[in-house]
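Last lecture ended with a question: if I hand you only a sequence, what can you say about the shape of the protein? Today we answer it with a concrete record. The protein is Transcription initiation factor TFIID subunit 2. Below, first the input exactly as provided, then the predicted structure, then a couple of comments.
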Amino acid sequence: MDVYHQKLTLSIDFENECIGGVSELFLKIDDKKKIPKSIHLHVQQYTIKDVFLNKKEVKYQVKNNFNKPIVPESTGCSFSLVEFQSTYSRKMQKIERGQLKIFLNQRKDLSKSDNFHISIHYVLKKPKVAIHFVKKPTRYVYTDPRNYQPYYWFPCFHSLRFHHTFELYFDVPEKYYVISNGQLSENFKKNKRSIFHYNLNEPITPSNIGFVCGTFSDVQIVIKHNLNLDDEENQNMNLEEVEDDEEEDDDDDEEEEEEDDEEDDVDEEDDEDEDEDEDEDEEDDDEDDEDDDEYDNGDEDVEGRFPEDNNELLCTAFSLIYEKKNTNEKGKNSSNINNLIHKMRTTLQTLPASVKYCEKFLGFRFPYEFFNLVFLPNLPENVILSFASFTILSEKILYTDSSIDDIHFKQLNIILALTTQFFGQFLHIKNPCDHWIILGIAGHLSYLTLRCLFGNSEFLYQKIKNNEFLIKDKNFAEILYNYHPLTRGPINTKHYRIKSILVIQMLESIVGQEMYRNILNRLLFDATKKDSKKIVETMQIISIWRKATGMNFEDFRHQWLYTSLIPKLVCSAQFVKKKNEQVIELKVEQYQKQPFQGLLKVRVHEYNGIFDYYKKIESKDHNFNVFVVSRLHKHKKKQIEYENGEILIFQLGKNNPSPVFYIRIDPELNWIRELILLKNNDSMWRHELELERSVISQYETIKRLSHWKHEDSLEILHATLLDIRYFCPIRVEAAKAIAKQNCEESGWKAGEVLIEIFKKYYFDIETGIIKPNDFSDLDNYYLQKGIIIAISRVKDKNSNTPKMVVDFLLNLSKYNDNSENEYNDEHYCCLIIQAFGYLFPEDEDDYNKLFEEIERYLERDKLFPSEDNILTRTSLQTIAKFQNRVELDFELFKGYMTDVNYSDGIRIEAIYHGLFIATKEEFPNRFLLILEYITSNEFIEEFSPFYYVLLIKKIAKKLRLNKKTKTKTILYFNYVNLLKTSTITNEQIMKIIWNLMNRGSINIDLRNILFKLYDIIFGIHIPNPFKLGKSKREFKTLESYHKNKYDSFQQQKSFFHLEILASKKLKKKYLKKSDSIDFEKNNINNDLLISNPIKVEKPESVNNHLSVGSTIYDDEDEDEFHGNISPLPITQNIEQENKIAINNNNSLFPSIVEERKEINYTEKLKQNPFQFIPPIHPLSFDLQVMNELQEKDDNKNIQNGFFIRKIRNKTYKFIQPSKKELKFFQGTDEFKFILKRI
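The predicted structure:
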């Protein structure tokens, strides 16, 4: 049975934050003979009132564990992330099965018709996940599509693989307006309520459904489509021609074509078998093969396109109207609305050009007839919530004509909202682990559109900065193809998004842009066919690229999708004059164990031309010789003509040792890599900066020159800064590189050079005073800001800031005049404040002057609020940078973080910086104080969920960066060690983070970042707050289980196979000494519970060994463990051989008589040697029973090994080994135990 239509009716109550809804599902019956007894729907967070089947009430069952903790308290909390991860995985599997069970008691009546109707009535009160009610600055409600969880606000069949049409009704208060999916069919008022009716005839998944309700002002833009139907047919024919050209080399015989198809199918099956994703079954693989076969058939007709007369796209932008209290003046509200309309018109003025470029590039019309953009406050700038035919964005990306800062970033968000409608809504993914595909394709398409609007140099510069960001953020690298729900949270992080885009760019560079366009065109056109699933997945993309290139992408998959590999390339070159050869040595350094493999381009610029060479990288070290075509001719001039018509006359000098000007490795930046190019002569970088017009080459050259401390380097950078032919960001990078040249080799002239250049451009020559601001020339404006930052970074030989630099920046701030400027100077003032943070004055009076200027900006922002209070946020950041230089007052930050009248952005900065300005003695208590404050229910309810996740993420990243940083920084202590070794706050911090993470009613993103924060501080093992100050190896833990081992453990219901191996040597020794060992037989079939020997240290007494939380293992074999090692009770006295009887009054169990049976353990181990379950942690034992035993001094029971543990709500005990088993371990430190279910 499949759902073909769903009708959703919602009544919204803002006062009580409540939604009453009716979800009606229309299902068709495929096989009337196989109608199930019941069906399961996904429901969470709300209360089911009634369920009707064909308008008749039916029985149902609901298993909703939304408000229950992940790890139940009844099972005993061990505070172990390994246990939490396994429990959470099982809970997510249960959620995927469905929580609402509806009994189909009328199966005979259902078999008489082809379809039936289910109606579910429910009530949602004060939701916490997926739908948010907001009170300030005005009331509104919106849905959150992240993590694909629509069942948190309406009952549905949740699956990304199925889609159907929707019909939505909204009943809201009279003054409110609703924006949702599809076309607004009707809107009328009834009983002081407004009714909105939306129809969506395009089938989509339930996760693409959403709405937003509030009071809005709107702007409509009509965009004419760039393509007509003839262009689409021509585009489709071009694709067929390309496919036909690829198949020209094949023979025309049908038998040979069938053999080739069979070989391709075999290759696809092999690649899919090697894939580590276990969610894909055999049926999914067959579907992938069918999709790949459709890709080869270019002659099929394309159906389902829009009518020919539909040549316009209606785009409507909505912005929330603020309700201002105590404003009775007329025209106040209308001026606010006019301001919002002006902002939206200014921001969206490039939208028509973006739509036309995307349609032209893809050869495909916009997939929907309507496109709505909704701008909301209380959202961070980078948040984009996409739904089918409409998108929710942050109001902070709106700007006016007087704003000139961050225009590229704001336009990129608008373009990304547009491209996500093609890839993400119309064409969606099959599994959440495929999210990188739509992020990468939509993101790359947005950058290509940005290139159309702002030029190729801007596109290349953004590509450089993205690659540089991944290199700097390598300690936080993420895996793209992620399967586990606790590690799937990074899909919304910047690192995950940028890496997805760069991986798609690498795939484009392999096939070429024209072929890349054809592939995207084919994917979109295939989605318009009847009965198309409109899905895209990883194996399908890899298979398409393999067919398009004939290459094997297995290594590519493992390098860039399944690992966080970022290779480091170190290259050196030397010219051999006798052989006229250039010897290139390339060394590949990895940040991961997986080796980097790929085809690397080497470009050699000689006197007679440019020559490209390709080198296949397969190992770490590579040496290859390149024959130099040119000959060395001194004192000869060469004329170089560029594409833009520029002519450069270049003359070889006397000191040139070779005819090779310079060498470039991976010149187009086709790989994610860190490149270090060692120079072979002093003139190489000068030649590259003068001759090369590529932004990538210029940027890399300036970065190398910044580390080359020499007077010539300062001269080259100075000339680059003054040359207007260079791209403006390149000139800014040259200014920053000059600041690093302030050294003894350059005569300490860098500061004077920068100040002289700044005065030349921006000071009045006659008066010697800075000119009033004039930002009409954007290049000069960005250059002015870049030089200011560069000047602030100038340091003397004592690493202090020269006095002239401090006075210069103070004067810039005091005499800033923006009265004659038509543009806003808020971002310019923020940049001056940021420059204050880089200063290290020697005189304390200078610090007082800096604080006075910062306080002036804080007061200015209170009287005349800046855009998003950017002046206040920047001031708090700069004050925090003075840590360890002057004494900072925490009360300043406390006032901003506790005042609810400030925005969430200001409070985040106050909390974050107020925490990390603490001294070494204050930090643990400060961390506990702030953690208790931000985890309180009042704070969580009043804070935006997006900003709350951002706050925890910033704290976790700071702790992890401080933990991993090995270089010398201004931090004089390790935050993580302080938290772990504090006997006062350690246990409280652990419980607070654990309790919040263990809530079932929090957002998945918040749980994921709390999971990481807990791991950073305490690790994945069981924290031991009662035994601090122990050796380092006791705190050292092991990595979490491999997913194969985890899944095999989850599938075992009645069979627990406990394997704890201390080393491979023990395993071999164990198998050599005995081929068969007696084990205890359980009455239940296949319920053999086996524990392998573990090597431990012999304790003096049993009680000393059974200390809670201890960890014992050998340091030599620590890398070979696959789980946490926990001590097991040791029995030394054996009373009986085949039975155990305890008849005294203090016994825990009645008399037990067990039979034994010999089994071949060697064969058992060979059949399945790597089955694992989570290890037994000592904190999981019944501590109350252990304490009672110790109080009664019942050593007999302790020695007999009777200790209780609960696994999955079932009670188990340890049984002592027999004499035969103990004899095997005689004379060794190895012990054997059997786990028995009671």
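Comments.
1. The CA atoms of residues 581 and 978 lie 57 Å apart.
2. The chain has a mean pLDDT of 75.
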